């Protein structure tokens, strides 16, 4: 169907969507809070039987991480921890003169730090292009395939740099550069992959005899004997690959939520297994660690030629490549800001650039090349990458040994837009069918996530429970049919914890203002001190015997903070303290402030984005409350358990997978769960939790100890990711 043919109908649909939300008929008003907007989603259905969670080893901590080490997140301009209260509240109040979009690029009316899941489709009503000049797809023919029109995004690629020697599929190690005769290029690549020396690059100290070893390639695994304690080569063995993780955010440089955490940590864990790993992320600000590589390229995005520069840092065995372009600059505190068309244009540019990074960016002097390479794209922002990989290259016999994996962190945000905007994506016309989607809520539209899911070689969701939910009408947000039909290539892998960043033993945010580092051995004294410091910092009465409840999260329908508001009359009647930290929807921000005003002796509602405060609440609170309506994985409950803070969660998605309910009879479990995202269910769970806290000290301590003793490290998750990468590699 041509875009012209569909445009009028789509415009009608999208105009009708101005106040619609993807939950549509599924959404139900919860409770009767005066703060409730009615935009929240009641998300309750039969959850799948819990997969038995294999017992893991005792907590693996990287105790060697040093105070203020290079991984310690620097204070970002968005952090408001040290600002006076008035300014703290102002942090989240920035308003863009342009139509604002939600965290994932959907119109919400909120700041870009927010993820107003409830409203993302509303943006679709805005079909007027504000800043993008309409243009047909570009057709820069670089490598014409017989009888085929080839579209390449980059404006200045010399053939010798775009076509490194292809590799046969069976050739696994990233260190090996032999090409094996499938359509060899007429011109040799500028940088030979064979010159790549993994050990030298990541700084392993080799003994002389190892240096003499002239073996290369797959059989060379034995020469990695000095990789940590493992003398048989990289943990990944012969599966060693080149991995490029592509995402819109990456902690500690730019983070609005869990995506940033994952992208900051998973690559390091993959590198520890021996893979050569790069992270590609936009350069929203000046990041002191990264240096200009002096490479300039030109790309077309939505009809405009744009210059792109590359900045590079090598940290913890990972190449971090920051894409610098005018579209990304000065967006540090507003990375998903601007109109829907603007963010789409940024992501089109970003994906076009990222897919060619393995050719243009010689990290450590050597490009990654496109053999034995896998991209890991994340969420809808980078879902175009698998599409470009296929449309620009794989369809034309290029990049035949490159694979793509797409990770679903949150399917509530999909990159929906009118069908008549499809030409901005610079794709062959027949690709439109992969984007086109009709659902009762969104009408007929172009859906970037849908196309990415179809084009990716493999797909990962961030928990198995969430994967199950995605296949349901309630949980798939219109993509359930696509998920179901691609079930064969989807795996659920629970996120891990970066133990350099989220570890009470070494947490840099617990080193001042009366807080302290602690471990399982020093839990009692350590938590008591952190709790007192938190109470002091927030102006609450310093009391050890009062249970301190915490909430941290984006203020939107997903996180269910309004359910806490609904439960407030009961909470206020208890001898408890409640600290909530979040930013997002204006009505929910007001709710936090209102609750603090109403209950000044009990409640603190901190409106703002503060990484240090998130760490301090996690350490100082006794209980972390997560009444999320849906939660693909959830990281805060993992962090809480690692800090001896007991989670009380709605049993949904990853929360259900990771928080086994407490069983007082067998003294097992990790926290309290409730089966519907409703205030009365939350109250019931909290009642049991507080009863245990007050009256069963031994049970409480063993709950804390079990939480802290789990191996929640990324190393375990990275191993599971590796299985997926290998499946992708051998999949044709
Ligand atoms: N106001 C604030 N100040 C400081 N820090 C704040 C903050 N609000 C949130 N954070 C931090 O942001 C992170 C949020 O993690 P979540 O797992 O809740 O992610 P989120 O829902 O954004 O992401 C999605 O992706 C992740 C990763 O896959 C999934 O776990 C999750 O279920 C899915 O919704 C945590 O590190 C938290 O401390």
TrEMBL record:
Which pathway does the UniProt entry assign to this protein? Glycan biosynthesis; starch biosynthesis
**E.C. no:** 2.4.1.21
| Starch synthase catalytic domain residues | 242-484
What Gene3D superfamilies does this protein map onto? Glycogen Phosphorylase B
Query: Where does the record say this protein resides?
Result: Plastid, Amyloplast; Plastid, Chloroplast
Q: Does the keyword Transit peptide apply?
A: yes
What InterPro entries does the record tag this protein with? GS/SS (IPR011835), Starch_synth_cat_dom (IPR013534)
Single GO BP term: starch biosynthetic process
A cellular component annotation (GO) from this entry: amyloplast
Report which reactions are catalysed by this protein.
Answer: [(1->4)-alpha-D-glucosyl](n) + ADP-alpha-D-glucose = [(1->4)-alpha-D-glucosyl](n+1) + ADP + H(+)
- UniProt entry keywords in alphabetical sequence: Amyloplast, Chloroplast, Glycosyltransferase, Plastid, Starch biosynthesis, Transferase, Transit peptide
Superkingdom classification of source: Eukaryota
Q: Where is the composition biased (Basic and acidic residues)?
A: 63-79
Task: Kindly give the PANTHER family that the UniProt entry links to this protein.
Answer: GRANULE-BOUND STARCH SYNTHASE 1, CHLOROPLASTIC/AMYLOPLASTIC, SOLUBLE STARCH SYNTHASE 2-3, CHLOROPLASTIC_AMYLOPLASTIC
State the name under which the record lists this protein: starch synthase
Taxonomic lineage is: Eukaryota, Viridiplantae, Streptophyta, Embryophyta, Tracheophyta
């Amino acid at each position: 169907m041509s875009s012209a043919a569909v445009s009028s109908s789509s415009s009608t649909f999208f105009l009708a969507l101005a106040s619609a939300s993807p939950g549509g008929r599924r959404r139900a008003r919860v409770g009767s809070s005066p703060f409730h907007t009615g935009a929240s989603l009641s998300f309750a259905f039969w959850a799948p039987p819990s997969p038995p969670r294999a017992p893991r080893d005792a907590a693996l901590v990287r105790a060697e991480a040093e105070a203020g080490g290079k991984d310690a997140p620097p204070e970002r301009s968005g952090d408001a921890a040290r600002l006076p209260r008035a300014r703290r509240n102002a942090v989240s109040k920035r308003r863009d003169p342009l139509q604002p979009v939600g965290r994932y690029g959907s119109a919400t009316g909120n700041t870009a730090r927010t993820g107003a899941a409830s409203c993302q489709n509303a943006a679709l009503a805005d079909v007027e292009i504000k800043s993008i000049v309409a243009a047909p797809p570009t057709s820069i023919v670089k490598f014409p395939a017989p009888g085929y029109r080839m579209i390449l995004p980059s404006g200045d690629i010399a053939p010798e740099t775009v076509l490194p020697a292809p590799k046969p599929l069976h050739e696994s190690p990233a260190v090996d550069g032999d090409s094996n005769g499938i359509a060899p290029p007429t011109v040799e690549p500028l940088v030979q992959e064979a010159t790549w020396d993994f050990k030298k690059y990541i700084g392993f100290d080799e003994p002389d005899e190892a240096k003499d070893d002239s073996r290369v390639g797959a059989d060379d695994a034995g020469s990695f004997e000095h990789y940590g304690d493992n003398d048989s080569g990289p943990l990944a063995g012969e599966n060693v690959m080149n991995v490029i993780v592509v995402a819109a955010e990456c902690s500690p440089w730019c983070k609005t939520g869990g995506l940033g955490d994952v992208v900051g940590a998973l690559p390091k864990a993959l590198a520890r297994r021996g893979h050569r790993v790069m992270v590609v992320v936009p350069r929203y600000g000046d990041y002191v660690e990264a240096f200009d590589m002096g490479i300039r390229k030109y790309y077309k995005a939505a009809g405009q030629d744009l210059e792109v520069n590359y900045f590079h840092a090598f940290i913890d065995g990972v190449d971090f490549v920051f894409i610098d372009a005018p579209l990304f600059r000065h967006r540090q505190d507003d990375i998903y800001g601007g109109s829907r068309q603007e963010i789409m244009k940024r992501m089109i540019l970003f994906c076009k650039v990222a897919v060619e990074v393995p050719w243009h960016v010689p990290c450590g002097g050597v490009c990654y090349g496109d053999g034995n390479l896998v991209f890991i794209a994340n969420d809808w922002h980078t879902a175009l990458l698998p599409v470009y990989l296929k449309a620009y290259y794989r369809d034309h016999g290029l990049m035949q040994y490159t694979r793509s994996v797409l990770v679903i962190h949150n399917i509530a945000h999909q990159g929906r837009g009118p069908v008549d905007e499809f030409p901005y994506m610079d794709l062959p016309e027949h690709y439109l069918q992969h984007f086109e989607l009709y659902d009762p809520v969104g009408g007929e539209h172009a859906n970037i996530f849908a196309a990415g899911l179809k084009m990716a070689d493999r797909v990962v969701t961030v928990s198995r429970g969430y994967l199950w939910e995605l296949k349901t009408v309630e949980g798939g947000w219109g993509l359930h049919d696509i998920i179901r039909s691609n079930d064969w290539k989807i795996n659920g892998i629970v996120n891990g914890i970066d133990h350099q960043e989220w570890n009470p033993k070494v947490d840099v945010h617990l080193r001042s203002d009366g807080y302290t580092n602690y471990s399982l051995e020093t839990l009692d004294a350590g938590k008591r001190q952190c709790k007192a410091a938190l109470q002091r910092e927030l102006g609450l009465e310093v009391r050890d015997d009062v249970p301190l409840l915490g909430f941290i999260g984006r203020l939107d329908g997903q996180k269910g903070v309004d359910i806490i508001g609904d439960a407030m009359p009961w909470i206020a009647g208890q001898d408890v303290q409640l600290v909530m930290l979040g930013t997002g929807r204006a009505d929910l921000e007001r709710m936090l402030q209102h609750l603090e005003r109403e209950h000044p002796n009990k409640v603190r509602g901190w409106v703002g984005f503060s990484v240090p405060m998130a760490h301090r609440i996690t350490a100082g609170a006794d209980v972390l409350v997560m009444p999320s309506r849906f939660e693909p994985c959830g990281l805060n409950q993992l962090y809480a358990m690692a800090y001896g803070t007991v989670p009380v969660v709605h049993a949904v998605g990853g929360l259900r997978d990771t928080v086994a309910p407490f069983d007082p009879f067998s003294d097992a479990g990790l926290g309290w769960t409730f089966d519907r995202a409703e205030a009365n269910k939350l109250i019931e769970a909290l009642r049991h939790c507080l009863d245990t806290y007050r009256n069963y000290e031994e049970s409480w301590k063993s709950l804390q100890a079990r939480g802290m003793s789990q191996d929640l490290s990324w190393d375990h998750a990275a191993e599971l990711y590796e299985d997926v990468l290998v499946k992708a590699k051998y999949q044709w």
